Amino acid sequence: MYQKTVGLRVFRIVGVTVVLLWTVFPVLFLFMSAFKSPREIFSFPPRLFFRPTFQNFIDLPAEAPTFYSALGTSAIVAILASVLTIVLAVPAGYALSRYRRKFLQGSAFFMLLVRMYPPIVLTVPLFPVFSALGLIDNILVLVVLYSAMFISLCTWLMKTYMDEVPIEIEESAAIDGANTWQKITRIVLPLSVHGIVATAIFVSIFSWKEFTFAYIFTGSNTQTAPIVLDMMLTPVTTVSWGPLFAASAMQLLPILIFVWLIQSYLIGGLRTGGVKQ
Amino acid sequence: MKLHMTASRSQEQFYFWMLVTPCLIGFLWFTAGPMAVSLWWSFTTYNVIDPPVWLGFDNYSYLVLHDPAFWPSVRVTVVYTVFAVPGGLLISTAVALLLNQPVRSRALLRTIYFLPTILPAAASAVIWVWIFSPTGGLLNNMLESVGIRGPAWTHSPHWALPAMIIMSLWGFGGAMVIVLARLQDVPRQLYEAAMLDGANAWQRFRHVTLPQISPVLFFNLVMGTIGAMKVFDQAFMFGAASGQVPGGPARATLFYVLNLYQKAFTYFHFGLASAMAWMLFAAILAITLFNFYAAKRWVHYEN
User: Among the three residues A15, A37, A55, which one is the final residue of a domain in this structure?
Assistant: First the structure.
């Protein structure tokens, strides 16, 4: 059916390559620069082959003493936020999937509405409250905020995964005497576990890289990695590009791995609340 | 189905609310509640230390009539939106069409193209500030090798915003993935029928592909516009990285939300910041509703 002319094939190959260069090269440069000496980072044309050095990683603590602990804080926040979100979203998703389908009519627009206000808008009213409660510089604030931010999206995702578990299985379990709790833990959860794990990873990625809330609600004790990166990018004197690239590479790597693991689910998540339900 | 349900109606209601309540509390406490509070504050003057004092519409009129930063920040956001949204729509659709062709390792390419969308704003800023470095940056070195003297990008009042628009076009992947998924759902028969009718490639695109993907193009338009009006992280880091205050140089990257941030957290005018937040929300709502209205003319839904 397709006209396999040479011209069209060449066009495709060139097109795919150009887009590949546009998307991949900046990331590739970041990782390569992490292992380059400061002088090589700015050499032109940029060298694709060079002698890798770990000097930037060794110099990093001197440039940004808090980076490694910030990386740890980021990890803790990401894990706790995804656990809390899932713990709240699973029951709610189950309830929406099984009990009240009418509750959801018009929810697509509601999902859109939730995504319409910028996160910064929430920080304005929350900041005075949290500072009055002495909760600034406490990682639990970030955990709760990230969960609140993702709860509606994740509940929706849970609902769609659980919709795929046939209700007949639950009904036959009910006949065998299973109560609601058992139906959820023994049947629905095991059958939708892939979706749940993907959603947890999804929340982890966004908590790991979130900037706005972290910038406003953390202090010196609870800096997350993006905050330290921002500080390194905007120093009083000059930017130490070597250590900065090393730090950025370490922040990026887990995301690359996670994206790889859940690529097919990510696309579903992106479309959620979209036109096509 | 009802026959099989063992739980009674009231039991079912009880379970429903028991399961949904924690989620609802979280939402009300951290989303609806704060929004209501900020609506109230938008009519007051409030500096966090002293209790809010009622002002009526003074914050709104001050912003629109007197505030020196308000209109510049609106302008920056509008310019950015006007270029970044159609640009992103165009690139994401073009790349999706490309990947919809018979290309090898489509799934791998799709994931790679998607990556920039999900990278942290901080790491992206590091990469792009380095690329846009006025002296010795990758982009200006490349321009110089073909005989063009590049502008100062991040340090130039005229080029800082275009630099941010270019950076935004890097993250076309999310929208692209959505278009591609829809493209692959387009029924083959439609193309076959069009070919039997003698439609050429352009006609097939114009009368089959485009109507079929119009719902996702619409979705991308709405989400892209909302996203562009909310820009903060990138603007914050990008502006500050040029060795100046966020929003620099010379307010060239003072996005609306960045201005809002400064009103609240630099100057502690929480009333003004809340008024800005509600004006933004109203603007986003209005534009989204307009998009929905305009969609009737060009978006094609099945049945």
Answer: A55
Q: Phi and psi for A196 in degrees, rounded to 5? A: -65, -45
Question: Pick the residue with more confidence: A121 or B76?
Answer: B76
| Among candidates B5, B34, B243 on the partner chain, residue whose Cβ is nearest the Cβ of A125 | B34
Looking at per-residue confidence, does A165 or B164 come out higher? Answer: B164
Question: What are the structure tokens assigned to A148, written together?
Answer: 């609140």
Question: Least CA distance to A94: which residue of chain B?
Answer: B19
Q: Distance of alpha carbon B36 from its chain centroid, rounded?
A: 24
Task: Measure B268 CA to nearest chain A CA, in Å.
Answer: 10
Q: Is the dihedral of CA A203, A208, A212, A217 positive or negative?
A: positive
* Same-domain check for residues A47 and A156: no
Better pLDDT: A218 or A99: A218
* Cα three-residue angle B23-B27-B29, rounded to 5 degrees: 115
Output the pLDDT for position A274. 40
Least confident of A17-21, A99-103, A233-237: A99-103
Contact call for A209 and B120, based on CB within 8 A? yes
Domain extent, residue A7, equals 2-55
With beta carbons less than 8 A apart as the criterion, state whether A180 and A120 touch: no
User: Which residues touch B135 (CB under 8 Å, ≥6 apart)?
Assistant: none
ipTM of the complex, rounded to two decimals? 0.85
- CATH number of the CATH domain containing A178: 1.10.3720.10
Give residue-wise pLDDT tens across range B194-215.
999 988 889 999 999 999 999 8
pTM score over 0.80 = yes
Q: Of A2, A60, A213, A234, which to mutate for an interface test with B (greatest number of B Cβ within 10 Å)?
A: A234
- Asked if pLDDT for residue B149 goes beyond 60, the answer is yes
Q: If contacts are CB pairs under 8 Å, which of residues 176-205 in chain A contact chain B?
A: 180, 205
| Residue A171 structure tokens | 């009904």
- Between positions 79 and 118 of A, the ones with CB within 8 A of B are 88-89, 91-92, 94-96, 99-100, 112, 114-118
Judged by CB atoms closer than 8 Å, whether chains meet at A233 and B177 is answered as no
| Average pLDDT over chain A, rounded to an integer | 84
Domain B79-251 homologous superfamily, CATH: MetI-like (1.10.3720.10)
Nearest C-alpha neighbor of B84 from the set B220, B181, B180:
B220
- The predicted pLDDT at position B99 comes to 92
Q: Does A275 fall in a domain?
A: no
Beta carbons within 10 angstroms of residue A40's beta carbon: 16
Longest dimension (CA), chain A: 73
Chain-centroid distance, C-alpha B217: 14
- Sign for the CA dihedral angle at B223, B226, B228, B231 comes to negative
The residues that bridge with B44 in the sheet, in sequence order, are B54
Count of domains forming chain A: 2
Q: Quick one: A155 and A46 in the same domain?
A: no
Q: Quote the CA–CA distance of A117 and A95 in Å, as a whole number.
A: 27
